[in-house]
Structures are given as structure tokens and as C-alpha cells.
Amino acid sequence: MNVRGIRLRMSRMLAAACVLAATGALVPAAQGAAQASTDRSGAPKPTIVLVHGAWADASSWNAVIGRLQRDGYTVTAPPNPLRGVAYDAQTLKNYLATIQGPIVLVGHSYGGMVITNAATGNPNVKALVYDDAYIPAQGETVFQINAAKPGSCVTLDPSIFLNLVPYPGSPQGDVDAYLKTAPNGAYTGFADCFANGVPRSQAQLLAAGQRPFAVSAGSEASGVPAWKTIPSWAVVGTADHVIPPAEQLAMATRADARITKVKAGHLSLITRPGTVTNVILDAARAAGRA
């Protein structure tokens, strides 16, 4: 055999060895992934999808995400467009259609409106979790729910607590709404209205990075509620200044949700992430048995 033939044979042997080595290395990883996707009983662990609300983004879930991931769950927190109930729900519905297997769907604040509509008709969604969230019946709106019981800091004249900004391509008369940071008359300011209980320095960061909410979304009626057919859980912040706790309890009771009260403001996912995580885990375990 000439030198060229020897080199060719050695190259082929080396390539085969690399393939075998790679295959051997991948087997334990694949086994680990399979183990991570099942619970102690061997049932598949659901994917947990977290949906943020208005004036927030997915980073508000970070403390909860870390805890769920450490417990072996696959967690995603896709962005909520905050353009309108139907639009946002369809965006989430399309996203959920890409996930195989059981799903636990979690919504904070306005995210509750979105999950209520997005989960309808999806057989993979096995549990709904509402964290300081709207749990609407068909035909209800955010503005209607806010005003149903006294105590919300976002039912004032919009000019008092909102900065209203036009956005490109908006429907006639629609604008983006940002919460004002500073107090203004009856409005107590971002930190005390939206982020009460959050350390002041963190509340300032949240105010600076808030995502706007299209005003028209607040008056858009909710559709057929998924909680009619999907088991639900609710975390109710007893010091919530955005959605009055009494209204949260009324909505959760109507939805036959399993209720957990927590001494927290509207952002219990930030201030009490352990409690919120535990409720999601309860829902996930129930979903795994469904």
C-alpha cells in the first residue's frame, strides 16, 4: 500500500473513532435529558410557560424560572406583545402549538387575560395558574374588572397616572400607555401602585424598563374562558394595589381555582417567588397525573 493509501485508511479510521466517541458521549446526555423530563412516578413533566403582564417583561419571572429549572422543569417565558386580548392570545396560542406534551400555563396580571383565551381548545394545556391576575369571564374587560371593587390604583383619570404615546400603525385613537414613575395627586407613583413591596432600587429599574400596554387592550372583551374546562390555581396578593384582592378572590372562586393567599403586592412573582413557585409546582404535579 502506498503512502497515499495509508493516509486515506488512517483518516477513515480516525473519523470512525470520532463518531463512536461522540456517540458514546451523547448517550448519557440523552439519558439525562429523558430523566429530567419525567417526575418520580415516571410521568412526563409538563413544560411550564410563563406569561408576563402589562408594564413588565419576561425578566419579572427570573426568580421563579430559576427555581423551576432547578427542580428539573422545562420553562419558557415568551414575550407578551401587549397589543390587545385577541392579538396577544393568538400569538401565545401559536407558540403553544409548537410544544409537545403537557403544558402548565401561568399568567401574571394582564397575562391572566391572555392565558384565559390562548388555552381554550388546546388539549395539551393541563393546568392554568393565575398570579395576581385577571381571571375573566366571557365578555369582561380589564377596565371593567379594575372598577368592579374599590381599591385599584389604575382606575383614575388616565392623564393622572399614564404617559400616553402614539405608536406606528395603531388603530384610530389608540396609544401606548406607560405608568408614570412619580406620584401625581391621587396616584401614588409606580413604586407604591404597581411595585409595592419591591425594594426601592429594584422598583426604579422596573419603572425604567417597563413595556407599554396598548390602551385599547383594556377595553377589549375576553372570549370563552379556558378555566371552564381546565383546572386552575390562583395566587392572591393580599396587598395588591392594582387588582383589588377582593376582586381577585371573587374571580378565583368563580373559576373554582385552588387559592393561595400571600402577603404581597402586585408583584408577588418578584417579592414572594418561593410561594408562587410552589403553587406552580402543585399545578405541575397535578398536570403530570392528568
| Count of strand segments | 9
Q: What is the makeup of the main sheet? A: 6 strands, parallel
Quaternary class: single chain
How much helix, percentage-wise, in residues? 40-55%
- Percent of residues in beta strands? 5-15%
Global outline: globular
Molecular structure report:
This protein is of the alpha/beta class. The chain is 41% helix and 14% strand. The protein is built from eleven helices and nine strands. The strands form two sheets. The chain has a six-stranded parallel beta sheet with strand order 2-1-3-4-8-9, sandwiched between helices. Helix 2 (62-70) packs across helix 11 (273-289) and helix 3 (85-96) packs across helix 4. The protein is globular and about 55 Å long. The model is unreliable at 1-36 (pLDDT under 50).
Output the keywords.
290 residues; alpha/beta; 41% helix
Task: Put the structure in a nutshell.
The protein is α/β, with parallel strands linked by helices. The chain is built from eleven helices and nine strands.
Topology:
Layout: H1 3-36, E1 47-51, H2 62-70, E2 75-76, H3 85-96, E3 103-108, H4 111-118, E4 125-131, H5 142-148, H6 158-161, E5 162-165, E6 176-179, H7 190-193, H8 200-208, E7 213-214, E8 232-237, H9 245-254, E9 258-262, H10 268-271, H11 273-289
Parallel strand pairs: 1-2, 1-3, 3-4, 4-8, 8-9
Antiparallel strand pairs: 5-6, 6-7
Helix pairs in contact: 2-11, 3-4
